[in-house]
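Per-record layout

source: Heyndrickxia sporothermodurans
name: S8 family serine peptidase
length: 407
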Amino acid sequence: MKRRSRRSIPYKIISMGILAALLISGSNYSFAKTEQTSNQSKVNVESIVQKGQEILREQKQKANLDAKNKLGITKADINKATNKPFAPKEKVRLIVELTDEPLMDIKTSVFEEKKKLKTHDQVINQLTKKRIKTKLRHQFVRGFNGFSIETEFRNMDAIKKINGVANVSIANTYSEAMKSSKGLVQAQQVWEELGFKGEGMLVGVVDSGVDYRHKDMVMSDKGKGKEKLTKENIQSKLDETEVDDRWYTDKVPTGYDWADKDDDVLPYESSHGMHVSGTIGANGDEEKDGVKGIAPNVQILAEKVFSDNGGGAYEDDIVAGINHAVEMGADVINLSLGSDGGFVGEEDDTVQKAIRLATNNGVLVVAAGGNAYYSTKNDKLSSSTKPYADNPDIGILGSPGVSPYAL
């Protein structure tokens, strides 16, 4: 969003004038006294400078908050509308990042992973000692070192102060986003000219689930002959995971419901994940009302991150889904989800960290750009329902699609 700068020169002139006067008087005083007094005055001058800087910062912040854009909206109005207030006892999902560096290679030993998990236990034990009631959701050691918990909002500040904790943030939630078809990308031309329909490829679909029983979710004989995961070779991979994931079919070999923490990956609440999976790899008979996707012979990993109870997808569940797809050997991970007007940066975005880890380990991560037609569109301010008439902001890319490691 382009911001109009409000002139705040009067504030700065007054502040600088006061500061200069204080400095001059302080300097004259230091020349008039002994060396000991001079040192004392030097300390006073430094404190005056520090105080002056604080005054400048406060006045600058106030000027920025009071500054109005073309629609007469101040930053204070925006902060009030977009920063959802939480009641002290309201349950929230928190992402807790630890100070210890994460593992960056998916091939690291189980021993190294257990060492990292011990640091988690140390922090979690401190939570117990402080009688902070929490429910552990996920633990991460690769790409991002930390864990997610459910607890009351009032506990957030206390958790931040625990030794070993680097950062604590409220988990973002994401909504579905996908509108496309094989005709737009001319997939049929690839089939005809190269004879390739995705054989031997494994795609992780991080979404609302996949109905692996569907008549169009099948493999051709050619696809089965080259499939990456079979009922025989997948078992060793499943044995290494921390969850009860299992084999489903040749088309959808495995997956997990990270939102509800069970192995039921069917899309009860929303068919969006099925829509996405169908676009990617459905292998139905189009002459009999079936659907054929872009790469009908790929295998699909059903990484379900939208709960059966509705609502958005939490970022810790998305990270878990991404990591699982990487562990299973995915060639591509699809993220047809996001939030409009995203920000590039991993400091408070564990999903972008997970995307970087996947990319650095040879996985192509494809993320949605978003469905918004201007970046300032949101459901918080009534004025956002229409873009600016002059010089409209069209920077519409959503998060996590903004990640430089995602396509």
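summary: The chain has three domains: 9-67, 91-171, 176-385. DSSP finds eleven helices and twelve strands in the chain.
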